[in-house]
Amino acid sequence: MCFGTSYKILHLDFPDNPNKPCLSCTKQWCLNQNLPICAGATLGDADPDTATGKEGDVEARCFREYHCSHPYSGGTADRLV
């Protein structure tokens, strides 16, 4: 999410550590995607001793999207986005 209102869900297909994929979902990773909605966005304070995670113009969230199996779904899927 950039500037508190613009967002896009991106697939994290190749995380740095496949066993802990959400560790790759960072503000910097989001900015590295060069999305037009994030043009001019900044990270803010990145010092782990003082930062709260709400600094800057970018917010990164990692979640899993689950599709339940039912007669109309065609099966199950588990993917990280």
Description:
The protein has one domain. Helices cover 7% and strands 10% of the residues. The chain is built from 1 helix and 2 strands; from the N terminus they run αββ. The protein has a two-stranded antiparallel sheet. The longest helix has 6 residues, at 27-32.
Q: What is the string of SSEs from the N terminus onward? A: HEE
Low-confidence stretches: 70-81
Rg calculated over all Cα atoms: 15 Å
Helix fraction?
under 10%
Give the count of helical stretches.
1
> How many structural units, i.e. domains?
1
Number of DSSP E strands: 2
In short:
The chain is built from 1 helix and 2 strands, in the order H-E-E. With 81 residues, the chain is low in regular secondary structure. The chain has one domain.
